[in-house]
Amino acid sequence: MHEIKLAQGLVGLLDKAVEDPAVKDVKKVHIKVGKLHYIVPEIMQSAFDSTPKNDKLKNAKLEIEVLPVILKCLECSKEHNLNDEQFNVECCENARSEIISGKEFVLEGIEY
Ligand SMILES: [Zn+2]
Predict the structure, then answer these.
(1) Are 48 and 30 in contact (CB under 8 A)?
(2) Computed from CA positions of residues 79, 77, 103, 17, in that sequence, does the dihedral angle turn out positive or negative?
(3) Which of 47, 44, 58, 50 has its CA nearest to residue 14?
(4) Is 53's pLDDT higher than 80?
(5) How much is the pLDDT for 91?
(6) For residue 85, what pLDDT is reported?
(7) Is 94 left (phi over 0), alpha (psi -120 to 50) or beta?
């Protein structure tokens, strides 16, 4: 249930964002989450619902976009979009690679 931690972090960001008096009741919260967080959207929503927060956020629904895991081969610079079944880079033998996407957690915007 690491969603609880992420939800608390998100609420921390949102509480600041809704301090602006121009912001009314928030309907939707758009976030982008890298696949390496392995979140389950429904659990993320219920974790969010049960986290204490500003009244303006009470009815907010999360719109979660999951970003793929992308590895970059350090040998040939080729980028590999990985899925669950295939978690290795196969272009160059024994090549090292770095993660360039998949660890994001971004508050993209709010609708109110
Ligand atoms: Zn390569």
Answers:
(1) no
(2) negative
(3) 58
(4) yes
(5) 85
(6) 55
(7) left
CATH architecture of the domain covering 3-111: 2-Layer Sandwich (3.30)
- pLDDT band at residue 90, thresholds of 50, 70 and 90? confident
Going from N- to C-terminal start, the domains of the chain cover 3-111
- In this predicted structure, the answer to whether residue 32 has a pLDDT above a threshold of 90 is yes
Residues near ion ligand 1 (Cβ under 5 Å): 73, 75-76, 78, 91-92, 95
Give 100 Cα–ligand 1 centroid separation in angstroms.
Answer: 14
75 Cα to the center of ligand 1, angstroms: 5
Pairwise CA distance, residues 95 & 102, whole Å: 20
